[in-house]
Design brief:
It is a single chain. It contains 9 helices and 10 strands. It is of the alpha/beta class. Strands 7-6-5-9-8-10 form a 6-stranded parallel sheet, with helices on both faces. Strands 1-4-2-3 form a 4-stranded mixed sheet, with helices on both faces. Helix 5 packs parallel to helix 9. The longest helix has 17 residues. The radius of gyration is 20 Å and the shape is elongated.
Length: about 250
């Protein structure tokens, strides 16, 4: 896996992820690059630097490491890292939830846009979410773009892939999680939900929302209450609003 952009790589180093090598295009984000290099040297991480005249070579290596993904030197801010991330299973996540006071796990039902996934990871890290669970099919992979947009969130919030989302929800219910599904078509809002226990939040597809089987497995179905003319939010913004509302409710 590769991480691109200064924020992502700083987060990898600070979180203690296994960084195999950092590639740096000289004078790109120069001041931040110097800081990252010092931190990398302290951790004995390989550092490969390219002169500006070798920008094309830098991009060729970047694209080969990204499996041909749509990345370039500019979108990467002239720096990328090869990173190894330990896999976390759904069972591992549920075990961790047992030791948390007010754990939240997010379940994404068909989020296919890497930008939405990255934004959701950023909000999840900000609001102390334990993990993001996605189905193996019909969901965005953790692309370099998603990693960059997460602004380091991916280093703290694992993305867990499961074969069957409905089955994963059933397993989570057995461990005490209550599921809250969000839909703009529901009449009830978050004020009707008890948030003083372990929660699983369901965020549906950007266009179609949650699938019917996913809805049936929810304990609560709610909408986010707005005050303006627009009646819906995109998936990542809705997630951030939901998390902020829930964490505020839990502090009361």
């Amino acid at each position: 896996m590769i991480a691109i952009g200064v924020h992502s790589i700083e987060a990898c180093l600070e979180a203690g992820l296994r960084v195999l090598e950092i590639h740096y295009l000289a004078k790109a984000e120069q001041n931040r690059g110097v800081e990252i290099r010092k931190l990398a040297e302290k951790k004995n991480i390989k550092w490969k630097e390219y002169a500006l005249k070798d920008k094309l070579k830098f991009e060729q290596v970047l694209k080969s490491k990204a499996d041909g993904g749509s990345v370039n030197a500019d979108s990467a801010q002239g720096i990328f890292a090869e990173v190894f991330i330990d896999e976390v299973s759904h069972l591992d996540l549920l075990k961790k939830a047992q030791n948390e006071q007010l754990p939240i796990i997010i379940y994404l039902d068909g989020i296919t846009d890497p930008q939405n996934l990255g934004s959701i990871l950023r909000s999840s890290a900000f609001f102390n979410v334990l993990g993001v669970v996605v189905p193996e099919s019909r969901s965005s992979p953790l692309t370099p773009a998603a990693i960059k947009i997460s602004s380091g969130g991916f280093a703290y919030v694992p993305v867990v892939r499961v074969p069957n989302l409905a089955r994963a929800m059933e397993d989570a219910k057995e461990q005490g999680l209550w599921f809250v599904g969000f839909s703009e078509h529901e009449k009830n809002d978050l004020s009707t939900v008890r948030v003083d226990g372990p929660l699983g939040l369901i965020i549906g597809n950007e266009e179609k929302g949650m699938r019917e089987l996913t809805k049936k497995n929810c304990d609560f179905l709610v909408s986010l209450e707005g005050q303006g003319k627009v009646k819906s939010l995109n998936a990542s913004v809705a997630t951030a609003v939901a998390l902020s509302t829930i964490r505020n409710m839990q502090r009361v």
